[in-house]
User: Fold DUF1775 domain-containing protein from Cryobacterium melibiosiphilum.
Amino acid sequence: MKRSSITLAAAVAAGAFLALSAPLAASAHVSVEPASTAAGSYTVLTFSNAHGCDGSPTTGITIDIPEGIDSVSPTINPGWTAAKVMDGDRVGQVTYTAETPLEDGYRTTFALSLQLPADAEGETLAFPVLQSCEIGETSWSEATVEGEEEPAHPAPVITVTEASADEHGHSDATAASTDDHADTATTETTAAGSASSTSGDVLARVLGIGGLAVGAVGIVLAVTARRKTQA
Assistant:
């Protein structure tokens, strides 16, 4: 095989690798949306997962609930059973168990309706997730430190922003049970939740486009080099 042909093949392979590996790496984490929500507000947090444990199908997801969040209403997923694990008078964890293991490479989401603490403005709340698989498990619980390299298994986090007047008013006027409010919040936030894509999906698309662009440049350079060699 001529040198120019080898160079062209290598460029094509490199471009394909970058285009494919970038979105895979970006979607490897368990993510949560929205990334930020006002203190004291009722919201629906959606956790997404698109991979197994080193390729092994997922059988269960356990989400830890931070202190200060007293009540949670899990959304029922078809094919999964949901359960609340109490920690005294509050919900400490929510567990989802798959009726049929979720194969690696297939995406699903888990939505929790809850109220954020009113006194948590400016804080970052972590929701550690334990992913159980047919073989092994992955603990998404490592803290992400600003300015440092992201850990291998970061915990999903949200930033609590300043409460608005409407959100304070809604909280002060609360007279019904927390579950009733959680149901109302689910209805109010469904449109907003469905309109936004997960951060992992957006990043995957951006990195995927970048990988394709790099691959295309490599191909152009290889073709140019081949023409020069033939000339």
Notes: The chain has two domains: 1-34+197-231, 35-195. The CA atoms of residues 63 and 172 lie 28 Å apart. Residues 199-230 form the longest helix (32 residues).
